[in-house]
Inverse folding.
C-alpha cells in the first residue's frame, strides 16, 4: 500500500536553490516538487498534508562524524545508538556516519561486526560506518578492499594517541597507497601525538593539572605540522585526504595551500571550534573539563579563520565529532590530571541550530548552511543524492524548520544522554519543528514520534568529489 505526504507552502532550501515549492513524498522518497500555488502543485494529492507556510523545508542533516558508545580512557561515550540517534533527530539530523573501531591485534571485520551489533535495531535515523584502522598490516590492507566493496568507503587514522589508535608515517603511507587503489578515503586526526605526549609529561611534572592545560599542550603548531605531513604523505601515495575536526588558523592554511596546488584534500570543522574557545577550557572549579576534546578548543582569534575557510570552501563540512561524556563520574576521572579527562563533547543535537544562527549572524548564507551540513557530507561520503538534498528520487529525509522561533540551549531540555550542554544558556534563533526520515514523521510539531529500529544501515559509494 503506497503512502503519500505533501509538504505545502514552505521555502525549500537546498545547497543550490531556494524556491517556494510544495513537496510530494511517496513511499519514503521525494516524488516531485512544484512551485507553490501552480496547477502542478495543486494537483498533488495525499493522505497527509503538512503546512510549512512561513517555514523552511530543508534536507535532513548529515553528520559524518559521531562516536556513539565509543570506548575511551576507561569509560564509554554516554550516548547509545538509541539515545544518540534520537537526539540527532530532535536536532534535524537524519543520517549519521559513526566510527567502527579496529582493536589492535584484531581484524577490521571484527571491529565492524561489533559496531553493527551495537547499532542494528536501535537507531531512530539512518546510519553508516567509517572504519578506524588502528593496526595496519598486510591482512588489514586486504580487508580495506573488501570493506570498500560493501559500502564502508572511508578509513580513519590517528597521528595522535600513541599506544591507543596511533599510526606511524609508514603505516599511514601504506593505508593511503591502498586507498589510492581501492577508491577509499583516508580521514586523518592530524596532531603530532608523539610530541604532545612529551609536553603533557612536562606540564604534569610542573604541577599544571587543570583542564586548561589540555589546550596548551596540544599546540596549534602541532596540529598544523601533522596536517602538513598528512597532506604530503597523501600526495606521495596519490591518494585523497580528509582532515577531521580542523581547529586552528595554521591548519586551515595548510589545507588552503594544498587545495591551491590542486590536491584532492578536504577538511571539516565542528561547532565547538566555531562557537567556543580556550575561555571555556579555563572555566574554574574543573568546569573546563566539559570542553576537553581533541583537537582542543583554540583562542577566539582562530574562529574568524574557520568561518572564512567555510566561506572560501577551504573547509567543506561541519560535523560534530559527537562523543559525550558526563561531567559527573566521567569527565571527573581527570581531576588532578588533565590527561585523564575523557576527550569528547556532546553536540549532535545542536549542529543544525548553531549553523542557522551563523546564517542569522551573517557568517554564511542559507544555501551554504545546507551545503556544509547536508549536501557536502553526503557527497563526500558517497550518499548523494539519496541523502543531503530534496529532489525527485531522494530519500524523504526532510526537516520543517522555523527560522523565527527562539530557543535557549540547555541540558534541561536537550535529548542527548549527557548531564551538561556545551552551549548552556546560549540563545539561538531558529528551531526544528517536524522531521521526516524516509517519509516517516519522527518529530511531529516538537513531539518525538519515531522509534528505535526505524533507522537502517546505509552502505555508501566512494567519495563523489573524486574522478
Amino acid at each position: 500500500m503506497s503512502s503519500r505526504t505533501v509538504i505545502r507552502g514552505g521555502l525549500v532550501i537546498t545547497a543550490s536553490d531556494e524556491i517556494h515549492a510544495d513537496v510530494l513524498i511517496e513511499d519514503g522518497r521525494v516524488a516531485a516538487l512544484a512551485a507553490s500555488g501552480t496547477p502542478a502543485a495543486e494537483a498533488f494529492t495525499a493522505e497527509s498534508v503538512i503546512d510549512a507556510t512561513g517555514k523552511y523545508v530543508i534536507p535532513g542533516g548529515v553528520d559524518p562524524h559521531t562516536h556513539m558508545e565509543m570506548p575511551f580512557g576507561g569509560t564509554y561515550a554516554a550516548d547509545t545508538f538509541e539515545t544518540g540517534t534520537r537526539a540527532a533527530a530532535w536536532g534535524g539530523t537524519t543520517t549519521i556516519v559513526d566510527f567502527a573501531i579496529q582493536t589492535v591485534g584484531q581484524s577490521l571485520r571484527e571491529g565492524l561486526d561489533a559496531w553493527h551489533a551495537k547499532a542494528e535495531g536501535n537507531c531512530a535515523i539512518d546510519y553508516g560506518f567509517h572504519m578506524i584502522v588502528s593496526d595496519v598490516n598486510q591482512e588489514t590492507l586486504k580487508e580495506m578492499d573488501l570493506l570498500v566493496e560493501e559500502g564502508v568507503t572511508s578509513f580513519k587514522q590517528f597521528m595522535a594517541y600513541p599506544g591507543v589508535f596511533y599510526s606511524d608515517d609508514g603505516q599511514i603511507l601504506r593505508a593511503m597507497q591502498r586507498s589510492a587503489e581501492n577508491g577509499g578515503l583516508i580521514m586523518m586526526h592530524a596532531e603530532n601525538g608523539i610530541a604532545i605526549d612529551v609536553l603533557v609529561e612536562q606540564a604534569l611534572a610542573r604541577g599544571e593539572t587543570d583542564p586548561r592545560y589540555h589546550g596548551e599542550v596540544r599546540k596549534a603548531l602541532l596540529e598544523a605540522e601533522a596536517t602538513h605531513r598528512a597532506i604530503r604523505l597523501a600526495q606521495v601515495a596519490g591518494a585523497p585526504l580528509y582532515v577531521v575536526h580542523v581547529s586552528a588558523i595554521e591548519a586551515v592554511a595548510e589545507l588552503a595551500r594544498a587545495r591551491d596546488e590542486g590536491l584532492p584534500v578536504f577538511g571539516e570543522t565542528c561547532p565547538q571550534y566555531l562557537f567556543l574557545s580556550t575561555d571555556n577550557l579555563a572555566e574554574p572549579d574543573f568546569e573546563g573539563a566539559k570542553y576537553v576534546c581533541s583537537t582542543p578548543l583554540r583562542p577566539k582569534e582562530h574562529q574568524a579563520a574557520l568561518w572564512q575557510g567555510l566561506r572560501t570552501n577551504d573547509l567543506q563540512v561541519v560535523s560534530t565529532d559527537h562523543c559525550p561524556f558526563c561531567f559527573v563520574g566521567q569527565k571527573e576521572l581527570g581531576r588532578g590530571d588533565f590527561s585523564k579527562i575523557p576527550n569528547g563533547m556532546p553536540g549532535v543535537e545542536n549542529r543544525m541550530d548553531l549553523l542557522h544562527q551563523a546564517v542569522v549572524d551573517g557568517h554564511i548564507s542559507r544555501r551554504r548552511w545546507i551545503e556544509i551540513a547536508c549536501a557536502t557530507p553526503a557527497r563526500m561520503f558517497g550518499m548523494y543524492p539519496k541523502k543531503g538534498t530534496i529532489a525527485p528520487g531522494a530519500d524523504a529525509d526532510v526537516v520543517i524548520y522555523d527560522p523565527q522561533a527562539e530557543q535557549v540551549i540547555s541540558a534541561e531540555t536537550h535529548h542527548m544522554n549527557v548531564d551538561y550542554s556545551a552551549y548552556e544558556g546560549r540563545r539561538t534563533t531558529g528551531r526544528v519543528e517536524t522531521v521526516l526520515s524516509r517519509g516517516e514523521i519522527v518529530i511531529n510539531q516538537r513531539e518525538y514520534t519515531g522509534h528505535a529500529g526505524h533507522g537502517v544501515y546505509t552502505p555508501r559509494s566512494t567519495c563523489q568529489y573524486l574522478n
